[in-house]
Amino acid sequence: MSVCLESGTPIPARLVELAWLDLMIIADRPLRYGTPVQLALFSDLVTAFTQNRGIVHWCRPSQHGWQIGIFLTQPLPDRLTEREWSDLRSGLRYECNWKARIQWGGDGPLEPVWFCNYSIKGICLLIPHLVPQGTKFTLFGSAGAKDQPVLNGEVQWIRQNPDGVQIGCRIQGQYGRDLPRMFGNLDAVHFASEKDPSAVHLSESIETQNCELSASEQFLAVGAAYDSSPSTSFP
């Protein structure tokens, strides 16, 4: 595959995983939340080739560079994705650790919950108690103001673990594209908020800020390690 910015600047990158509407790459640098990119993908034998555009929504340091999640503007063709569907998922999962508040069934008090991961059409939450499958809910920012609902969803599955109860939820539309802006610490995904005053960003909890800050503090060390690793650029 090849990746470049809208300006035409190439980004050395390696494909990690893909689905119909999103993909994950390893790159030699971090990219800001909302950065548009141009992509060219081809199969091992160059029998399938496609061009696409995408938007960066997730960026994390790793041992080999920067893991970057990209949501695509158009679905990928089946000939490129057919071998990726061992788990039948409709989208990739992106780890996160954000705090929010939830209201069950459109009424009642707000309760604290944590995001474990998200995809383009779903979220995984850690909640303090069991709820029935099919329960509908509304999510609010971690500040918990009831007059500012952010997201609606429905519980699809429930799993108990030692830390609490995990629930997998379907969210309306493709709002997974906007979750980092809604709930995350945008400094950790290099969001240039001072250059985009129109961007709406809800107040973050101290817990969310501390968690994202601990990840961002790894950036320099990982970047230095990447400089000594083999190049991932492609012709």
Low-confidence stretches: 191-209, 211-235
The sequence of SSEs as H and E is EEEEEEEHEEEEEEHHH
Major sheet details: 7 strands, antiparallel
Number of strands: 13
Output the radius of gyration.
19 Å
By CATH reckoning, the class of the largest domain would read Mainly Beta
How many DSSP helices? 4
Name the assembly state: single chain
Instruction: State the end-to-end CA separation.
Output: 9 Å
Overall geometry:
elongated
* Domain count: 2
CATH architecture identity of the largest domain: Beta Barrel
User: By CATH's scheme, which homologous superfamily of the largest domain applies?
Assistant: predicted glycosyltransferase like domains
Helicity level:
10-25%
CATH fold-type name of the largest domain? Thrombin, subunit H
* Secondary-structure-derived class: mainly beta
Percent of sequence in beta strands: 35-45%
Mean pLDDT level: 78
Record the strand order, biggest sheet: 2-1-5-6-7-4-3
Detailed description of the structure:
The protein has 235 residues and is mainly beta. It folds into two domains: 2-90 and 221-227, predicted glycosyltransferase like domains (Thrombin, subunit H, Beta Barrel), CATH 2.40.10; 94-180, Thrombin, subunit H. 12% of the residues lie in helices and 42% in strands. The protein has helices at 78-81, 179-183, 206-216, 219-227; strands at 2-5, 10-11, 13-18, 22-27, 36-42, 49-62, 65-72, 94-104, 111-118, 122-127, 136-140, 149-161, 164-171. The strands form two sheets. Strands 2-1-5-6-7-4-3 form a seven-stranded antiparallel β-sheet. The chain has a six-stranded antiparallel beta barrel with strand order 8-9-10-13-12-11. Strand 6 (49-62) and strand 7 (65-72) form a beta hairpin. The model is unreliable at 191-209 and 211-235 (pLDDT under 50).
